[in-house]
């Protein structure tokens, strides 16, 4: 007699998330909230990934500390506050930064326990699409099974093939967060967000900072007007720029770094400094995942994983989010994608508008942008109108001595719908959220002008820029 009874393997989990950065931990928490039995695998001893450990959070802690010092040294006297023998205790600054990191990563541990998420410490890799092997630090292995997998392994700093990072004098952003001293001279290779943020930290603390950038503008992916204004402001803060210059090498003798580069005309140039930070972007971290075991290949350039509109890979039930997939490498983009995939697995119908994910540079003044740039609208042939408002015309900005920068609004010429908002100024990182909300609801520039803005506030500049875009109706310029 034939036994036709079928046997099924009972999966331990509904979802396993590999990686606990902003994308991974948010995905895990949202999955758990939706009733899915969830596990998260993290290779390091603390949760939070690059962002919480060696990225967003520690860099903002140092940015805030250095801004306090800069204000004490340069603006307190004007405010009527007199100080003597002002000094930087850089060791205490770094210690405070570490405390902020510890509190934040510890918060993820608490949230995992609260949401009954099982955590595994080790390297997660695919045995097959439903089986994940966890290799622990002591070499021992454990195998767990799941219905779905979310890959959220993030990224690591890129390097130049001809330039060796020794992590002592030639460093990346990771080492720049833990230098033993404030550099006398720091050379930044790359004029993007990461380099400029950390460069501004050390410039405020007294370092000479030189930026060598291959492109003809800093923050080249943002609206060109922001690039020009930020460069002007940072130059006033003492940072020097070599734009359109091609780095050819960097060598260290243990105490000094020599950076060589070519000018736009082909002249050979060099800078000598005590530190050189390589900030030429980041590359997806997909090593050791065992993707080949389930038939997934990564892009040759950038090592990113190809996904469909649902962030699902070519293997059903295996998803990827954040820095390992297409799009900007932003923590909040990864968070949105983590929520998106969790809700999709749970049978909901979420959406993400990638055009409305804001970008921010946390220098001071801050830079923030959402939607289309002016250059993109010109390239698309979209007819648009523009309105701008400078912070030097803002009463709130004058009161706080933060008069650098402006808000620029781009609106459709025919419909007045807001197509892009670009700002550089005080608290731009927070203010950009107003623009995101307005654009999510497809507001017109006039819609924003009809909304009451408290006075005096920095956000009045957004309303004034919208007024300027609406028949040139700005009140205070």
General description of the model:
Helix 1 (22-33) runs parallel beside helix 8, helix 3 runs antiparallel to helix 4 (90-114) and helix 3 runs parallel beside helix 6 (193-204). The protein has helices spanning 22-33, 49-54, 56-74, 90-114, 173-176, 193-204, 224-236, 331-345, 374-380, 395-400, 428-440, 445-449, 460-469, and strands spanning 13-18, 38-42, 118-121, 123-128, 131-135, 141-151, 155-157, 170-171, 185-189, 208-213, 240-243, 246-252, 257-262, 268-273, 275-278, 282-284, 318-320, 359-361, 366-371, 384-390, 406-412, 418-425. The chain is globular. With 477 residues, the protein is an alpha/beta fold. Strands 1, 2, 3, 4, 5, 6 and 17 form a seven-stranded mixed sheet that branches. Helices cover 31% and strands 25% of the residues.
Note the overall shape: globular
The total count of helices amounts to: 13
Largest sheet: 7 strands, mixed
N- to C-terminal distance? 92 Å
Strand content: 15-25%
Strand segment count = 22
Low-confidence regions: 1-8
Mean pLDDT equals 96
Q: Look at the helices and sheets and give the structural class.
A: alpha/beta
Give helix % range. Answer: 25-40%
What is the gyration radius calculated from CA atoms? 24 Å
């Amino acid at each position: 007699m034939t036994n036709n009874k079928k046997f099924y393997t009972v999966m331990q989990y509904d979802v396993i998330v590999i990686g606990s950065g902003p994308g991974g931990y948010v995905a895990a928490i949202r999955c758990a909230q939706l009733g899915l039995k969830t596990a998260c695998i993290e290779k390091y001893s603390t949760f939070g990934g690059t962002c919480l450990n060696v990225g967003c959070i520690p860099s903002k802690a140092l940015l805030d500390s250095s801004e306090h010092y800069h204000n004490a040294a340069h603006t307190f006297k004007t405010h009527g506050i007199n100080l003597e023998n002002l000094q930087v205790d850089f060791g205490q600054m770094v210690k405070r930064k570490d405390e902020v990191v510890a509190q934040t990563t510890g918060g993820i541990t608490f949230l995992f326990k609260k949401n009954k998420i099982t955590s595994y410490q080790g390297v997660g890799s695919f045995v097959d699409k439903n089986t994940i092997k966890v290799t622990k630090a002591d070499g021992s292995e454990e195998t767990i099974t799941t219905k779905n997998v979310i890959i959220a392994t993030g990224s690591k700093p890129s390097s130049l093939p001809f330039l060796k990072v020794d992590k002592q004098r030639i460093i990346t952003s990771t080492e720049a967060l833990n230098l033993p001293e404030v550099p006398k001279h720091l050379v930044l290779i790359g004029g993007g967000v990461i380099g400029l943020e950390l460069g501004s930290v050390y410039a405020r603390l007294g370092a000479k900072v030189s930026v060598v950038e291959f492109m003809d503008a800093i923050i080249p992916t943002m609206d060109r007007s922001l690039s020009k204004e930020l460069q002007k402001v940072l130059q006033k803060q003492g940072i020097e720029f070599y734009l359109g210059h091609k780095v050819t090498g960097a060598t260290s003798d243990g105490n000094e770094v020599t950076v060589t580069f070519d000018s736009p005309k082909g002249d050979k140039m060099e800078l000598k400094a005590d530190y050189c930070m390589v900030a030429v972007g980041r590359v997806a971290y997909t090593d050791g995942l065992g993707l080949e075991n389930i038939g997934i290949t990564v892009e040759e350039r950038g090592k990113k994983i190809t996904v469909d509109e649902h962030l699902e890979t070519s293997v059903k039930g295996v998803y990827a989010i954040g820095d390992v997939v297409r799009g900007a490498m932003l923590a909040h983009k990864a968070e949105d994608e983590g929520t998106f995939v969790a809700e999709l697995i749970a049978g909901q119908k979420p959406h993400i508008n990638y055009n409305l994910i804001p970008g921010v540079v946390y220098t001071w003044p801050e830079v923030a942008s959402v939607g289309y740039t002016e250059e993109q609208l010109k390239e698309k042939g979209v007819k648009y109108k523009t309105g701008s408002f400078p912070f030097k015309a803002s009463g709130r900005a004058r009161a706080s001595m933060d008069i650098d920068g402006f808000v620029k609004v781009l609106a459709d010429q025919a419909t007045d719908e807001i197509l892009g908002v670009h700002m550089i100024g005080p608290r731009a990182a927070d203010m950009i959220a107003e623009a995101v909300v307005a654009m999510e609801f497809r507001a017109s520039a006039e819609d924003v002008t009809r909304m009451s803005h408290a006075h005096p506030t920095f956000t009045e500049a957004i309303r004034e820029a919208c007024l300027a875009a609406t028949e040139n109706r700005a009140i205070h310029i």
